[in-house]
Design brief:
Helices cover about 45% and strands about 15% of the residues. The protein is α/β, with parallel strands linked by helices and about 375 residues long. The protein contains 14 helices and eleven strands.
Length: about 375
C-alpha cells in the first residue's frame, strides 16, 4: 500500500483543510504539518494506549522535520472525557507555555480527539488543531468536521465547541493493533454513512463484512476515504449543524441515550450507535418509510459485523431523559434521523411518542439478532 492513498479536501464555511489517508502516514507527519503551513511547536495530547502502540512513529515523523514536541497523556475510554481530564490538559498546556503559533495535536481515538480539540478551541481563545486519529471510529467520523467537546452526566457531548482542524492524518496501518471489537464499532459508523448517503457503498459493505473485519487493505482504505469524503460534503453544506448536518446523527439519538444510562462503560460508541440504527430502522418501517426488506438488509449487516442489535436489561423509560437532552431536540420535541432506504435520509419531527415507546421496549427486551446472510 502506498504511503498516501488519498488526499481529500474538507471544506467548512470559509475554512478548508486536508485529510490524508494511507499507510505509513505517521512517518510523514512532520512533512504534512509543514505542507499545511504549521510552523510552531507541537503539543501532543495522546491516548496513553495509542501512544504505546504508535507514538514512536509519530514522534520520529515530527522530529525528523524539525518540530519541537512535548506530549502528555490521557486515559483511554469514554469515562475520561470529562471536566477533570480537560482541566489537567489545560494545566499541562499552560505549564509548557503554549502559544497561539503552536498547535495541539490529538493522537488517539474519538475521546482524545474531542477532548484535545476542545482544549485547542478554548485555550488562549483558540490555537491550531491537528487530528491524528488512531481508531477506525475516529478516522471516519470524530476527526472530521470540527466537533469538539466533553460529556456531562446528563448526556454525551453536551459541553463543546466547533473548532475545525488544520489537518487530519488517518494512518490505516495504525488500525492493525485494534481489537476486533473496536474495529466492529468503527465499521458501525461507516454503515451509518452508507445507509444515509451512499447506496453503492452500502452494497459494497454488505457484500463482504468478513473482509471488513479482516481489514482487507484496499477495501479498508477505500471505505475510510469514502466515509471521510461523504462527511466532508455534509459539513461543507452545514458546518454548525443548523439542519443538514443533523443527518450524521443517524442512530445517535437512541445510541447516545444508551451510553448515558450505562455510564459510558458498557457499550462502545459504535455499538450503541448500531443499536440506535436498529431502532431507527424500526421507526422508519413502522411509519411506512422503509421497506421490511431494506430494514432487514441494514440489520443483517450490523449483525454480520458482530455488533449488538439490542440492549436487554435497560429500562425503556430511563432512555427518555437523555434523549430529550439530544442537541437536535426543539421545544422538547425530538428530531429523528430516519433512512427510507440505503443512500437516503429524512429528518422527521412527527414520530409518535407511542411508537418510540414501542421501539424502546423492543430494544430493551429483545435478545434476538437479525439473521446473518450466508
Amino acid at each position: 500500500m502506498a504511503a498516501v492513498e488519498r488526499r481529500l479536501e474538507i471544506r467548512a464555511g470559509s475554512h478548508a483543510y486536508p485529510a490524508v489517508v494511507g499507510s505509513n502516514v505517521l512517518e510523514q507527519a512532520g512533512a504534512e504539518l509543514a505542507r499545511a503551513g504549521l510552523r510552531g511547536r507541537v503539543r501532543v495530547v495522546a491516548d496513553e494506549l495509542a501512544w504505546r502502540c504508535h507514538g514512536a512513529r509519530l514522534l520520529e515523523g515530527l522530529q525528523v522535520a524539525g518540530y519541537a514536541v512535548a506530549f502528555t497523556f490521557i486515559p483511554s475510554g469514554e469515562t475520561a472525557k470529562n471536566l477533570a481530564t480537560l482541566s489537567e490538559v489545560y494545566d499541562w498546556l499552560l505549564k509548557v507555555g503554549v502559544e497561539r503559533g503552536d498547535c495541539v495535536l490529538a493522537f488517539g481515538g474519538g475521546v482524545c480527539g474531542d477532548l484535545a480539540g476542545f482544549a485547542a478551541a478554548t485555550i488562549l481563545r483558540g490555537v491550531p488543531l491537528v487530528q491524528v486519529p488512531t481508531t477506525l471510529l475516529a478516522q471516519v467520523d470524530a476527526s472530521i468536521g470540527g466537533k469538539t467537546g466533553i460529556d456531562h452526566p446528563r448526556g454525551k457531548n453536551l459541553i463543546g465547541a466547533f473548532h475545525q482542524p488544520r489537518l487530519v492524518l488517518a494512518d490505516v496501518g495504525a488500525l492493525a493493533t485494534l481489537p476486533r471489537r473496536e474495529l466492529a464499532a468503527g465499521w458501525a459508523e461507516v454503515v451509518k454513512m452508507a445507509m444515509i448517503l451512499d447506496a453503492a457503498l452500502f452494497a459494497e459493505l454488505e457484500a463482504q463484512p468478513a473482509a471488513l473485519l479482516d481489514m482487507e487493505p484496499a477495501l479498508t482504505a477505500r471505505a475510510i476515504a469514502r466515509s471521510i469524503e461523504l462527511k466532508g460534503q455534509v459539513v461543507a453544506e452545514d458546518e454548525r449543524e443548523a439542519e443538514r448536518r443533523m443527518v450524521l446523527n443517524y442512530g445517535h439519538t437512541i445510541g447516545h441515550a444508551i451510553e448515558a444510562v450505562t455510564g459510558y462503560d458498557v457499550f462502545l460508541h459504535g455499538e450503541a450507535v448500531a443499536i440506535g440504527m436498529v431502532g431507527a430502522s424500526l421507526l422508519a418501517e413502522r411509519m411506512g418509510l422503509l421497506s421490511p426488506a431494506d430494514r432487514a438488509r441494514q440489520d443483517a449487516l450490523i449483525a454480520a459485523l458482530g455488533l449488538p442489535c439490542s440492549c436487554p436489561g435497560l429500562r425503556p423509560e430511563a432512555l427518555w431523559m437523555p434523549m430529550l437532552q439530544d442537541k437536535k431536540a426543539r421545544s422538547h420535541r425530538l428530531t429523528w434521523v430516519l433512512a427510507p432506504g440505503p443512500g437516503q435520509v429524512a429528518l422527521r419531527r412527527d414520530v409518535p411518542t407511542s411508537l418510540v415507546d414501542a421501539v424502546l421496549h423492543y430494544l430493551t427486551t429483545s435478545t434476538e439478532s437479525p439473521p446473518v446472510p450466508v
